[in-house]
Write a structure and sequence with these properties.
- Belongs to the arylamine N-acetyltransferase family.
- InterPro entries: Arylamine_N-AcTrfase (IPR001447), Arylamine_NAT_domain_sf (IPR053710), Papain-like_cys_pep_sf (IPR038765).
- It comes from Seminavis robusta.
- It holds the Pfam family Acetyltransf_2.
- This is Hydroxyarylamine O-acetyltransferase.
- It is a single chain.
- The chain is an alpha+beta fold.
- It has two domains: about 200 residues, Arylamine N-acetyltransferase fold, CATH 3.30.2140; about 80 residues, Arylamine N-acetyltransferase (Arylamine N-acetyltransferase fold), CATH 3.30.2140.10.
- About 30% of the residues lie in helices and about 25% in strands.
- The strands form two sheets. Strands 5-4-3-2-9-8-7-6 form an eight-stranded antiparallel sheet, with helices on one face. A five-stranded antiparallel sheet has the order 1-10-11-12-13.
- The longest helix has 15 residues.
- It is globular.
- The chain starts with a helix and ends in a 9-residue tail after the last helix.
Length: about 290
């Protein structure tokens, strides 16, 4: 049973949790997604010194995220969210997706999991949800083609057909539509255990995740990321008034302090930045 611990991790009071649990609707789904992105970091800290390695086992992930206050990869974050939503009464499909690379290519196997969620209040509607990406939409998106959707933080997204049943998720950035994810729109979904090969990809020594630390936390007004020793804030997140500030943290101790105070990561004293220092500056440069 995840619900009590999960609601507590997201910062909901018992009264708020009772209301959200009482009706499985788009509005309550969005409250859960937004709180998740605000409270739980997307990060690869388990590859850079911190204990509790990444796993697709939901019980192991629940221990890491709910009991120990940590974050994790998409397979952990979206996998645990899917189990939680199903416990509440939502119907959830887990779909494999390919992440668009920095070279503007979809040139590798699926290494991401996305969620397609149906509510009991309107079972014919489907919603795209993702809390396991560096910068996903802060609310769920209607699961349909060619519909521009702007979420409360100002991100504008759309799902467009690529070829056959394959679709791309795009976002509008500086007036240009840019691809982010690719997947089979009509995919029936698969159990989380089927994503082990995807997790193996991100855990491999050749992976960008192994080469450099990345930690992200977002809310409506601000995105904060730590890429190696570079702390970056963007606020507001979109629009002509968006301001970016970057701070280079000179020591591991300074990075540990940022993890604890900015990202609320408990016990970051085992952080290891040696590989991050050796990584090319372009790694995670867009985060």
């Amino acid at each position: 049973m995840l619900a009590d611990k999960y609601f507590q991790r997201l910062g909901f009071t018992p009264e708020q949790a009772k209301v959200i649990s009482s009706k499985h609707c788009k509005d309550h789904l969005d409250q859960i997604v937004e709180a998740n992105l605000r409270k739980i970091t997307f990060d690869n800290l388990s590859q850079h010194g911190l204990p509790l390695t990444a796993s697709i086992d939901v019980h192991q992930t629940a221990t890491k995220i709910l009991d120990h206050g940590r974050g994790g990869f998409c397979f952990e974050l979206n996998g645990l969210l899917a189990a939680f939503l199903e416990e509440l009464g939502y119907t959830v499909q887990r779909l494999p997706a390919i992440v668009h690379s920095d070279e503007r290519k979809f040139n590798h196997p699926p290494s991401h999991v996305i969620l397609v969620v149906s509510t009991t209040s309107d079972p014919d509607e489907k919603w795209f949800a993702d809390v396991g990406f560096g910068e996903p939409a802060i609310h769920s998106l209607r699961y349909e083609l060619d519909t521009e959707q702007t979420t409360p933080e100002g991100m504008t997204s759309r799902i467009v057909q690529d070829e056959g049943n394959v679709v791309n998720l795009e976002w509008k950035k500086d007036g240009e539509w840019l691809p982010r994810l690719k997947w089979d729109f009509e995919h029936p979904g698969q159990p989380l255990e089927a994503f082990q090969s995807g997790l193996d990809i991100v855990l491999d020594e050749s992976s960008i995740f192994h080469k450099k630390l990345i930690v992200c936390r977002i809310d409506r007004n601000e995105k904060v990321s730590l890429a190696g020793s570079r702390l970056k804030r963007t606020s507001p997140r979109f629009g002509p008034d968006a301001t970016v500030t970057v701070q280079d943290l000179e020591t591991t101790e300074a990075a540990q302090k940022a993890l604890k105070e900015v990202f609320r990561v408990p016990n970051p004293q085992d952080l290891d930045l040696e590989r991050s220092k050796q990584a090319a500056p372009k790694v995670w440069s867009t985060m």
